[in-house]
Amino acid sequence: YHNDTGKFDGKMGVIRIYQSELTAAQVAQNYLATKNKYPNGINFTGSNISWNANGYFSFNGSNANFGTSGAPSALINATGFTVSAWCWRTNGVTGSNTIVGQSHANGNSGQNWIFSISSSGTVYFHIYGNDDYAGVSNLVSYETWTHLAGVVEDDGVKRIYKNGVVQLSTASGKSADTVSYDTFVGNLGAINWHDGRIGAVKYYKKPLTASELLADFNATKGTYGL
Question: Could you give the 3-state DSSP secondary structure of residue 205?
Answer without folding.
Answer: coil
